[in-house]
Amino acid sequence: MNTDVSNAHDEHHDADHDDHGPDKGIGRWLFSTNHKDIGTMYLIFSLTMFFIGGAMAMVIRSELAIPGLQFVHPEFFNQMTTMHALIMVFGAVMPAFVGLANWMIPLMIGAPDMALPRMNNWSFWILPVAFGILLSTLFMPGGSPAGGWTMYPPLVLQTGDAFPFLIFSVHLMGISSIMGAINIIVTVINMRAPDMSLLKMPMFVWTWLITAYLLIAVMPVLAGAVTMLLTDQFFGTSFFLAAGGGDPVMFQHIFWFFGHPEVYIMILPAFGVVSEIIPTFARKKLFGHDSMVYAASCIAFLSFIVWAHHMFTVGMPLTGQLFFMFATMLIAVPTGVKIFNWVATMWRGSMTFETPMLFSLAFVFLFTIGGFSGLMLAVAPADVQYHDTYFVVAHFHYVLVPGSVFAIMAGAYYWLPKWTGHMYNETVGKLHFWSSTIFVNLTFFPMHFLGLAGMPRRIPDYSTQFSDFNTIASIGAIGFGLSQLIFVWVILTAKQGPKATDRVWEGSHGLEWTVPSPAPYHTFETPPQARIANEAFE
Amino acid sequence: MIRNTILSLLGLSLAGTAKADWALNMPKGITDLSLETYNLHMMVFWWCVAIGIVVFGVMIISLIKHRKSKGAESATFSHSTTAEIIWTAIPVIILILISVPTAETMVKLEDSRNPDMSIVITGYQWKWHYKYQDSDIEFFSSLARSSVEARRKESGVDPFSVENYLLDVDNPVVVPRGAKVRLLFTSNDVIHSWWVVGLAIKKDAIPGIVNEAWFRANETGTYRGQCAELCGKDHGYMPIVVEVVEPEAYAAWVNSHDAEQ
Ligand SMILES: [Cu+2]
Ligand SMILES: [Cu+2]
Q1: What is the pLDDT of residue B258?
Q2: Mind listing the pLDDT tens digit for each residue in B82-104?
Q3: Residue A431 C-alpha to ligand 2 middle, in angstroms?
Q4: Do residue B214 and residue B155 come from a single domain?
Q5: Do the domain assignments include residue B214?
Q6: Are residues B101 and B189 in the same domain?
Q7: For residue B8, is pLDDT > 60?
Q8: B224 and B203 fall within a common domain
Q9: Which residues of chain A lie closer than 8 angstroms to B203, CB-CB?
């Protein structure tokens, strides 16, 4: 420490400078190292992608509304299903959770910012580039990738000019995710408030910590898989080409070694969000906090040893099938623990039903339905019938839309007053909830029947016996799409409501509610006092 | 009836032309193993219903009774080791009850020894090729003419006017009832998947790999299916038709084929 008077003055001036608000103009966003700004950008980016991917879903459902080809050619239809999945998985759901993490993890653990703010800036700004590249393929000769988001060779190698762009954009998405994950791990491990032991961390922080490890473990595997595709296509290798001694099924093993943990990357943070919200509106502590942590860790571990349940039809040896079936069924146990614990949290609580709670309750109901169809899919002989049909489409949309997306919506409504300093319009929020919930079921529930009756997925046209449920699903999809415009309205008018208190919700607990609403540009520049931190937990 | 009501409620004009019936569930199929598959499917389904009734029941009671507007005061309990052991143990027991019969069926599914006949099925973009081993019958099987015309965009043909729209082929596979038929799958280009829901067989046809499945049909009839693995532009247009006939009729079919060649 320098005791020189003029130096001391300079230091004081620097500190003052930090207290100033954000930079003015576009520079604030381009060069931002502030976790709140970066979180906001992630969330806006994710919402944009949600609408782009959603528009593609509208194309798909319009074409499928009645039998016969009405609007698009089969080639373009396949491009839409492929791009819809890539954009929703990597562009909408994952960035939304990273956005929530950026905003909330430092506030929840009493840290001034993310541990690696410049890398944080990078991991965000890579995303618009990655998706700019991916979307530009729509205008290339041969169109965008059409071999499915799973990119199975040899089909994916038939992609036109878009092929290297697909690979490159997947690489970029992976780099962005890995950097985001490193940042979250370093922040959570090193920057918690002084007396916050690991087991005292809020569930959202916990589930994100586990998710971040999953990301670091599997994104490089995806990068490796797509790199092998690239060398097979351009550099004469034959990793996956039977003609050169390669094995097309090996790609599927590598892909799903990434792909199954990816499923949990998209659902564990959702578990975290819901575990924050239900206790708040039940006015009761989360039931079995520690067992929730162990359950999430169990799920993460099991997610590495179940990948071939996506491959029961590729011709695996019997012992392999049995192993992957039993391992997959085991996941039902920790997942059940989570669901039972949420129900036990509600039990003998004092519940109110604001929009975040409504979305969380719908999450528990509808994610459980997706879990049931997941259990059915684990039964290998039955999976042979379900595999690659609309039953599977129904299953994963139940866990991803009223699962992950509803949790994101719940989180957005829950923390919006903390972000903006104003209450959103509760009536409009409830309208958004009810129309989303009704239409999401109208869209995806009939798909179970379609799959069981024999309708394969990824087809642009179908036999007339499937027409009724397809029509219902299409009506539901358009309704669900339009319902999301209500959410945009909520966001656009978010600052017009009454002022929010610091605590925002009567039953809220945790450090994020000890800072003013809206949260100032810089928070927790000094770690919160032990006493305050403790109070926030009780 | 129900579908007409719903469709007219939705204001759709399709109701008059559609003759399809509502299929809500997996068909039982025509082999012993397709029936076993169906039974497994129903067993897990009913387990899910039972678990759902308990979980959703408790949740709904809680949502009704334990609300602040009814003056509910929140309790303070936040864990119970006993409860958590119970709801870990019960699912484990249910899973064991599910896995035992499932594993038994899986062993049978893999047992393709001593077949009466074998057919090699090769996937092409976008048609199937069938070769009967032990005979020189082989042929391609592609989408039937009637659907080829109707499927085009702006074809002007109403799909409802086409019989078995997108599910009919020019040359169906013919097999005798009661024979153990072994199927060998491979592909000439990309991965396809041969699926006939009534036989409960779905197997990937993969270039460079030969996969195996078998069935023994108990009933005669025509059974339809489709390619189940995305294989490019016309993935939706490579259906499968299996005709199960009495052994005598099968012998006659083989003879007529030999005469043709
Ligand atoms: Cu999986
Ligand atoms: Cu296909």
Answers
A1: 75
A2: 988 999 999 999 999 999 999 99
A3: 41
A4: yes
A5: yes
A6: no
A7: no
A8: yes
A9: 313, 315
Residues B242 and B125 in one domain: yes
Q: Which residues contact A269 (CB under 8 A, 6 or more apart)?
A: A97, A100, A101, A204, A207, A208, A211, A407
The lowest-confidence range among A21-30, A330-339, B192-201 is: A21-30
DSSP 8-state secondary structure symbol assigned to residue A526: S
Looking at the complex, does the CB of residue B51 fall below 8 Å from at least one CB of chain A? yes
* Burial of B9 per CB tally in 10 Å (0-12, 13-18, 19+): exposed
What distance in Å separates the CA atoms of residue A139 and residue B136, rounded to the nearest whole number? 48
Give CA–CA dist A280/A185, Å, rounded.
26
B238 CA distance to ligand 2 middle (Å): 7
Confidence tier at A535 by pLDDT (50, 70, 90): low
3-state secondary structure of B194: strand
One domain for residues B128 and B174: yes
Cα A533 from Cα A107, distance rounded (Å) = 11
Nearest CB among A69, A339, A340 relative to B153 is that of A69
Q: Which residue of B has its CA nearest to A149?
A: B230
Ligand with minimal distance to A258 CA: 1
- Residue B236 structural domain: 117-260
CATH classification at residue B144: 2.60.40.420
Tally Cβ neighbours within 10 Å of residue A24. Answer: 7
Structure tokens at B204: 């990937």
Statement to judge: residues B87 and B204 lie in one domain: no
Average pLDDT over residues B154-175: 91
Q: Is the pLDDT of residue A54 over 70?
A: yes
A361–B23 C-beta distance less than 8 A: no
Vertex A304: Cα angle to A299 and A306 (nearest 5): 90
Q: Mean pLDDT across the stretch B32-44?
A: 94
B154 lies in the same domain as B125: yes
CA B240/CA B140 separation, integer angstroms: 11
Distance CA B118, CA B113 (A): 11
Are A183 and A520 in contact by the 8 Å Cβ rule? The answer is no
| Beta-carbon count within 10 A of B100 CB | 9
Interface A-B, measured as beta-carbon pairs within 8 A, has a size of 307
Q: What is the pLDDT of residues A413-438, one digit of tens each?
A: 999 999 999 999 999 999 999 999 99
Over the stretch A153-212, which tens digit does the pLDDT of each residue have? 999 999 989 999 999 999 999 999 999 999 999 999 999 988 888 988 999 999 999 999
Å between A250 CA and nearest CA of chain B = 12
Total domain count, chain B: 2
Contact A40, A419 (CB under 8 A): yes
Would you state the structure tokens that stand for residue A186, as one six-digit string? 């370093």
- Residue at B75 is within a domain: no
Give the CA-trace dihedral at A238, A241, A247, A253, to 10 degrees.
90
Say yes or no: B131 and B208 in one domain. Answer: yes
